[in-house]
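User: Can you predict the 3D structure for this chain?
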Amino acid sequence: MSIRWATAAALIAAGVALTPGTALAAPTPSPGAVTVTRAGTSYLTATPVAAGQPVRVAASTGEYLYWSFPAAAGEIHEITATVTLAQNRNGRSTWSVEVFDGLRRRQACTAGAQTPTADASARTVGIGCTMRRVRPWAEPWSGDPLPGTYYVRLAVVDVPEPDLGLPIDVDLLVSTTDDAGSSADDGRLEAALVPPTNAGTVVDAEPTVAPESDGDDGWNLSLTGWLPEAGSRWIWTTAGGMLAAVAGVVGFALTRRPAIR
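Assistant: Here is the predicted structure, written as structure tokens:
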């Protein structure tokens, strides 16, 4: 659990009601971390950031901003962002932060204001997303977060058309909490789920081929003669051909008309 939400849980346990305006301790950047001043516009151009590395970017309303960060097994990542909005806006605007894994699958957020709405008079809007704990392995159909590269996308999803293109300032931070020992049901895949079967044994000697039978084709090529064996398929084929020829001649003789003289 991150510091921010641990503080929230402690306040709730103490009986303090949390309102939308209640301020909680936000994650702080790592000491000495270099501030990132740019963002990508797609998955391919996403700007890489490290955990605890602050991001401050000047952009325009309506742009899609992308960052990427690495995640290891047992870690819980929290993305917090503050968008400083332009003055003299025409209406309310709704902002969104989304997290995708390396397969472009959208990962669910367990806490945080993922899609907050800012009034026309608001100067800033806070956005947050706490990811699920990264698992060392998972079933392919589960969609659970696995170790690898993750992508953060920040954008406005609902804004009046006249406000598109207005300047904004984005402050973003990805914080990491190592929670590897919180659950004992996970392990590492040490062996294949379906072990390979033995296809057979190795043959050292060349296998012998069984001799073909001499009587398979019906011919008996012995010293007694070259005639086919009695009852073979060649006898029946020859007899059938002769009967068909006789039947054709007889049928023609019975059906032909006599010649007129």
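Confidence is low (pLDDT under 50) at residues 1-25, 189-195, 218-223. Helices lie at 3-13, 233-255.
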